[in-house]
Amino acid sequence: MIQVPRLVCCLLLTVVCLGAVACHLRRPKTTPTRMIEPQLLEPQPPEPARQVSKAANAAAVRLLDTQARGHIGRRILHQQPNGEIAEDSVWRWSSAPDRYLDTALRIEVAASPDMRLVDAGRAPALAATLLVWDLESAGGTRLIGAVEFQITGTDRVVHTQVVRASEPVSGELPGDLAASAGRLLRRLASEGLKGVANEQ
Q1: What is the per-residue pLDDT across 55-77, written as a single tens digit (0 to 9) for each?
Q2: What is residue 194's predicted lDDT score, i.e. its pLDDT?
Q3: Could you tell me whether strands 115-117 and 125-136 are parallel, antiparallel, or unpaired per DSSP bridges?
Q4: Is residue 153 included in any domain, yes or no?
Q5: Interior CA angle at 56 toward 162 and 151, to 5°?
Q6: Is residue 9 domain-resident?
Q7: Residue 130 lies in a domain
Q8: d(CA 57, CA 118)
């Protein structure tokens, strides 16, 4: 009588152990993601920081909002030859590209002696929407960017301007994508701010 419960107990323990070994789940194989951050500032030789002196008649601008439209996010996007947008499985931006555009706009205003950033309702307001930000591989890899700038003048009339530009990317990813992205963002920001200066 005593041996039957012991035998059942041993059999049950064996089944549990075999079940535990059989249920061991393997980790799925995932590709590690790698981050890229646009290089907005060119490497400078070490020297004391200089403050740009603003002109007395510097155009005032109020930066309202910087955002991205649609699917533009932290993933690096590739435009296929048929026009379809696909996400890169490995590379990501360390933050969403519209955040970098906001920083590029602020850097361009700070570097310009003819423009100053204000927080006043009577100044022209600038809103930027990143429309396109992807890699195109037709005829060599290029980083393509397009930004819609909405400039609300002091007369409350809204003017819209779309700026499109591209930068070549050398080598396989990441190549010089960080430097190319920085140059492209600065160029897009500079062109958008020229529209604000023309509204003055």
Answers
A1: 778 888 888 889 998 788 899 99
A2: 86
A3: unpaired
A4: yes
A5: 20
A6: no
A7: yes
A8: 14
Angstrom distance (rounded) from CA 97 to CA 145: 10
Q: How far, in Å, CA of 185 to CA of 199, rounded?
A: 22
Q: Is the peptide bond before 168 cis (omega within 30 degrees of 0)?
A: no
- The helix/strand count (H/E) of the chain reads as 3, 8
End-to-end CA distance of the chain: 101
Judge whether 81 lies within some domain: yes
* CA-based nearest residue to 108, from 159, 68, 71, 163: 163
Residue 139 pLDDT class (50, 70, 90 cuts): confident
Query: Strand 115-117 to strand 59-68: parallel, antiparallel, or no bridges (unpaired)?
Result: parallel
Which residue, chain included where needed, has tokens 């109020």?
62
The pLDDT value given to residue 49: 54
Q: Per-residue confidence at 24, pLDDT binned at 50, 70, 90? A: low
pTM tops 0.85 = no
Number of domains in the chain: 1
Give the CATH number, domain containing residue 80: 3.40.50.10610
Handedness of CA 98, 41, 146, 162 (dihedral sign): positive
The residue range of the domain holding 99 is 58-199
How far is residue 67's CA from residue 45's CA, in Å, rounded to a whole number? 33
Burial 134-143 (b: 16+ CB within 10 A, else e): bbbeeeebbb
